[in-house]
Amino acid sequence: DLTLYLGKRDYVDHVTAVDRVGVSFVQLACAFRYGSEDLDVMGLCFRKDIWFEQTQIYPESNKPQLSAMHETLLKKAGDNAYPFSFEIPNNLPCSVSLQPGPDDKGKACGVDFEVKTYLAMEKNNPDEKIEKKDTARLVIRKIQYAPSQVGAGPKADICKSFMMSDKPVHLEASLEKDLYFHGETIPIKVKINNESNKTVKKIKITVDQTTDIVLYSADKYTKAVLCQEFGETVDANGTLDKTLSITPLLSDNKEKRGLALDGRLKDEDTNLASTTMLRQGVEKEVLGILVSYKIKINLMVAGGGKQLLLIVWFLFLHSDVTVELPLNLMHPKPEGIFSLLTHISGCLNYPC
């Protein structure tokens, strides 16, 4: 029997470093899958390795310095256990999966990390065929938590004039902070000064997720993860100063194919993908998938003035006023996160 033990399956990207993973060989690979596993069987490979590292653990060649996690796993695994450790570079992407459609089957596309251990007959033969019964695999996740301190929120404003109206509509929107947690209510402060002769009929707020697949092509697309209308009206020469609240959730977007999600283990539930936090000096292509969000606040404006032609009414009577705000979505840092190991630690149980 070949048994793989890991102390945990979530490994944290602290920006400056990443938790470390801790013959027989063991390898850790970060890969991007962009096609069905069924196509792999047909001889078409839709998996690209972003990073790969391998080490020999039996016969022992480079025994790692034992951590507290190693000691715990060695007691669990028994006498024939061999410890190992990997260090994940901090320039690798976090785990992201693209939501499959209702009829899609197999492994989801996206960026994943996998620890694999196997038994080989030869030490250095990359062409050796490894039997499935001589292999043990375990998917892990690289995740990133929100910084301990958040900054001031963004603000945007616009002043828009309309045909057949002497004065404009002013719109200002702002957020209290620059980062929000998944599932947290997001209050948006909206200020409207309607100096025109038109009426603001309603306010529409949209949250868009933009997914930029930078690894293998310039594939960039945007999907709305929230679209909510508010019935507030502002008459001609009127004002409005109000806070409107929204909460973008994956539960409202389960049917949207291709939506970026945080990486998942097996079939457990997850959430919308966290915003990609770019580091200085890191090439975007290495990150595989970049995820960003923006909030659009749109005023639906209508009415005012006598129109002479129907076409003029159609083109100019109904118009809108829009501003956009960047949105960062992430997970809060759990208490005691700094006490976690700074390496991925594990051990292999291999009866000699």
Automatic annotation (TrEMBL):
Limits of the Arrestin C-terminal-like domain: 165-334
GO biological process: G protein-coupled receptor internalization; nervous system development; signal transduction; visual perception
Keyword Metal-binding in record: no
InterPro entries linked: Arrestin, Arrestin-like_C, Arrestin-like_N, Arrestin_C-like, Arrestin_CS, Arrestin_N, Ig_E-set
Matches recorded under PROSITE patterns: ARRESTINS
Molecular function (Gene Ontology), one example: G protein-coupled receptor binding
Recorded superkingdom: Eukaryota
Keywords assigned by UniProt, alphabetized: Sensory transduction, Vision
Annotated family: Belongs to the arrestin family.
Function: May play a role in an as yet undefined retina-specific signal transduction. Could bind to photoactivated-phosphorylated red/green opsins.
Protein name: Arrestin-C
Organism field: Poecilia mexicana
Lineage of producing organism: Eukaryota, Metazoa, Chordata, Craniata, Vertebrata
